[in-house]
Write a structure and sequence with these properties.
2 domains; 230 residues; two-stranded antiparallel sheet; mainly alpha; hpI Integrase, Chain A; single chain
């Protein structure tokens, strides 16, 4: 925002230079790829949303977990974006000054959600997958604020395993949840293929796989061995 403001002033000779142009990255340690929403988190969120009379917001939670869409795309995706085998949407966020297409494969859980969403009340002309309780399309800020209020009421937080520090989980962290679903149900997708879908690096996907997928499979295998020995 500061860079854009200074550039506006420079072009109109209000300032001599844009001091914020091409500055380096100032914020480090901002990667949240290791943070995901667990099944328990999603269950608690949904329960709280229903308790507060805002069950329709849980639709957005489910859609984010099954598509990995960012907030702006989540509230603007329409039925026209839903294809037979994939959901394809031109992302609102630019990457290298270009708008890229987000393509999400239709996994079985997403198919079931789409069937549910077809039954939501919509006002005439509203074609977005997600709608408010009034049948209108959401604004990004409106959905984000409502989502965060339910998250806070449900106490959904991430606890750092090394320091014990806690911080609220974000809507954006559901992208990690989607990554785990691709790894688990993606018919043998490699880290590179999942990374292409997510717009991540293969290393980020590998970290998700180690922390949330491989460990879970090891624990299940151990449990099966223990039961077999009894």
């Amino acid at each position: 925002m500061l860079r854009a403001l200074l550039e506006f002033g420079r072009q109109r000779a209000a300032v001599n230079i844009n001091a914020a142009d091409r500055i380096g990255e100032l914020y480090h340690g901002g990667s949240r790829a290791e943070i995901i929403w667990t099944d328990d988190d999603m269950k608690r969120f949904t329960t709280k949303a229903i308790e507060l009379g805002q069950a329709h917001i849980a639709d957005g939670l489910r859609l984010a977990a099954l598509t990995g869409l960012r907030r702006a795309d989540l509230v603007t995706i329409t039925w026209a974006n839903v294809g037979e085998f994939a959901v394809v949407k031109k992302a609102l966020k630019t990457s290298r000054r270009k708008r890229r297409f987000a393509t999400m494969p239709r996994i079985p859980e997403l198919d079931a959600l789409l069937e549910d969403l077809k039954g939501r009340h919509r006002q005439s002309g509203v074609e977005t997958l997600l709608v408010t309780s009034y049948g209108r399309a959401w604004s990004a800020d409106g959905f984000g604020g409502s989502f965060n209020r339910i998250r806070d009421a449900a106490g959904i937080v991430y606890t750092d395993p090394e320091t014990g520090a806690t911080k609220a989980k974000h809507l954006h962290d559901l992208r990690g949840t989607f990554a785990t679903k691709l790894i688990l149900h993606g018919a043998g997708l490699t880290d590179e293929e999942v990374a292409d879908i997510m717009g991540w690096s293969p290393q980020q996907v590998a970290a998700i796989r180690r922390v949330y997928v491989d460990q879970a499979r090891v624990i299940v295998a151990l449990g099966q061995r223990i039961r077999g020995a009894l």
